Amino acid sequence: MRSRQITMMGTAALVACALTTTTSIEAADFPVLRGSQIEDAPPAPDYISWSGFYFGGGAGVSSTKFEPGGEGLQKLARFSFRNTVLGNEIDMGGLVNELPSKRDSGAQYFGFAGYNFLFGDAVLGIEADYTRSNHSYLLTDYIARRFVDSTGTVNDFSLSTRQGAELLDYATARIRMGWAYGRIMPFATLGAAVGRFNTVSTIVATNDLTQANPVTGGVFQGPAAGYPLAVGETKRNVYGFGLTAGLGVDMALTENLFLRAEYQLVRFADVEGTTTTVNTGRVAAGLKF
After folding, report:
1. End-to-end alpha carbon distance in the chain
2. N or C: which end of the chain has fewer CB within 10 A?
3. 6 and 134: one domain?
4. Average pLDDT of 68-91?
5. Are residues 236 and 161 part of one domain?
6. Burial of 202 (C-beta count, 10 Å sphere; 0-12/13-18/19+)
7. pTM across the whole model
8. Kind and range of the H or E element at 72?
9. C-alpha angle with apex 214: 209 to 219, nearest 5 degrees?
10. What is the pLDDT of residue 8?
């Protein structure tokens, strides 16, 4: 009887030992119970949402290139001697010199607003900005010639030319394409621009005659009738249109505040004889919602 009890107690001890060993093995393989697994977990990603409305402002340095075309002044020169013997025998437009390009540079100030749409990490948006410029150029020239026309009249004539433009301000509307890398978003832009200009394109023509009277034999010396003559005009608030492109990067400081560095190119088509190109490097700060 005693031998049977000992045998039953030994069997129970073996079963208990087996259950304990199995439980320990399972516990060792269960990751929740391993403190090092939780401590070594990667940190949460530094995520910033670039979607939504934003606005801001900043400053930049611009180099503006003005390219005057001679065609406008050539037309004015021909017009200033229209319906005259001198104008019929000389191409006055051909006397107008080709005008060199001119540059102006300085600080500019601007404001912007836009809206971003987020597609995964891709950012597609629309943006408009307004820039105050006040860059300008002015070129003057003077041409004087003596010519004896087919009637024997001596013509001492001259052309005083003025051509210039001032870019007062401009605005752009652009599509913006970017890619979000956490707090950094590089982007490219493409769109249209409209600028406001003051322009001048004028010629003052003179013609002093030395002319013999075939009947009396007397000699007339003095200005031709209608001269000196001013043609062309000075215009204010003339609008020009063009295209714009750019590259830049936005950097988020907080969920709502970001900084921007950007290069922008704007090129305006001919405005009263002048083509204008603006290159700008600029920095800005903005708020997004």
Report:
1. 87
2. N
3. no
4. 92
5. yes
6. middle
7. 0.78
8. helix 71-80
9. 40
10. 41
Q: Six-digit token pair at 256?
A: 């709502």
The residue among 106, 31, 103 whose CA lies nearest residue 61 is: 106
The mean pLDDT of the chain is: 87
Whose structure tokens read 């003005």?
66
Give the domain range for residue 181: 52-288
Q: What is the CATH number of the domain that holds 195?
A: 2.40.160.20
Three-class secondary structure of residue 211 per DSSP: strand
Whole-number Å distance between alpha carbons of 281 and 254: 24
Residue 68 lies in a domain: yes
Query: What number of CA atoms fall less than 13 Å from residue 206's CA on the CB side?
Result: 12
Place of tokens 């013509």: 155
Q: Are residues 30 and 113 in the same domain?
A: no
Same-domain pairing of 198 and 131: yes
Q: Quick check: is 115 in a domain?
A: yes
**88 shares its domain with 223:** yes
Are 163 and 139 spatial neighbours (Cβ–Cβ below 8 Å)? yes
b/e string for 174-190 if b means 16 or more Cβ within 10 A? bebebebeebebebebe
